[in-house]
Amino acid sequence: MIRRLTIVVLLIAGVTLIVVAGAHNLRHRQAEMQKAQQEVQLTPANSAATSADPSDDPAAKLLLGKAAPSFTLVDLDGKKVSLADYKGHAVVLNFWATYCGPCKLEMPWFQDLQNKYKDKGLVVLGLDQDDGMAVKEVAAASKRVGVTYPILMPDDKVSKSYQLSDYIPETFYVDKSGKIVEQTIGAHSKNELEADVQKAIASGGM
Q1: Is-catalytic flag, 100?
Q2: In angstroms, how far apart are the furthest CA atoms of the chain?
Q3: Pick from 100, 112, 117, 81: nearest CA to 198
Q4: Chain-centre distance for alpha carbon 205
Q5: CATH superfamily of 43-202
Q6: C-alpha dihedral (141, 143, 149, 150), degrees to nearest 10
Q7: Is 0.85 topped by the overall pTM?
């Protein structure tokens, strides 16, 4: 009887240790993931990019406080989409590419934020920056990431008008009046993205 009781006690102790260790490991993994989300992540937009700090780029935030340059681009279905189509809306312009890992990290967050703030008129547009990539390949990449907001095909004129830096992702937050209220380079945490979205929604009321 004593032997049997001892075995039971040992089994309970073993199970308790396993549960405690598992909970500790889970908390550690969650903390590491949260830490990684807070770090700015960058991908060079071209082979000439050498700076590791986006703030060193002379193009950083040159358009902040100015009217967002107008454009008309073609989406994955061949339909023309203009920034002017969304007058009176807060718009997120996210410049990304299929080879950009950090882009794929934040794009699902933009999808979540569009779903959350669609009743407040938020619009997210993904402006692809791949060079010579076929439409079907861009479409497949965006589908794998899980986004349903419009993906627009590249145009060098648009890239130049937005004076893009040497790194992607690069994101412009446009308020309801058409003014750029925030500009970020690199992938940021979801909380930071949401704060910038809220800023765009709250600014430039019609």
Answers
A1: no
A2: 84
A3: 117
A4: 25
A5: Glutaredoxin (3.40.30.10)
A6: 50
A7: no
Q: Encode the chain (206 residues) as per-residue pLDDT tens digits.
A: 555 555 645 566 555 545 444 444 445 444 444 444 444 466 666 543 433 444 445 456 789 999 999 999 999 999 999 999 999 999 999 999 999 999 999 999 999 999 999 999 999 999 999 999 999 999 999 999 999 999 999 999 999 999 999 899 999 999 999 999 999 999 999 999 999 999 999 987 65
DSSP conformational letter for 25: H
Distance CA 65, CA 87 (A): 17
What are the backbone angles phi and psi of residue 162, rounded to the nearest 5°?
-95, 5
Options 60, 90, 103, 153, the catalytic residue: 103
* φ/ψ of residue 165, rounded to 5: -80, -170
The pair of structure tokens assigned to 137 is 């390949």
Name the percent of the chain in helix, strand, coil, to the closest 5. Answer: 45, 20, 35
Q: Tokens standing for 19?
A: 């549960």
DSSP string, 139-154: HHHHHHHT--S-EE--
DSSP state for residue 178 in the 8-state scheme: S
